[in-house]
Predict the 3D structure of the following.
Amino acid sequence: MRGRTAVELPVGATAMPFEFSPYAPPVGAVDRHIGARLAGRRQMLGMSIDVIAHVTRLDPATYRNYEAGLERIPAAALFEACRALKVPVRFVFDLYAPGADAAVEWAFHPHIPRRMG
């Protein structure tokens, strides 16, 4: 294993899960963009995280991590989320520009309700 560091398996594991693999791609700008687009659309519809997590059959904390861009969203979960939000899958990729921050763009979107107080 030239140029690689050894990775320890979790206790009791017989094979390396993908998230512990040295080949797992890091979460990046695209993941944050996708999460921001999902969060913005969900807020625009007035839908809570609990509701969309239930519809997509995910744990609310996991879905919250997807929206925050802390975890990479699997294709099946992305498909279900887009279906629940009534947008095509391409919606989450629209307007992606490397270096842009979709969270900032959505923060000031006129159709997202603001909390006062």
The chain has a mean pLDDT of 78. The CA atoms of residues 33 and 100 lie 8 Å apart. The domain at 45-107 is CATH 1.10.260.40 (434 Repressor (Amino-terminal Domain)). Helices lie at 29-44, 49-55, 60-68, 75-84, 102-107.
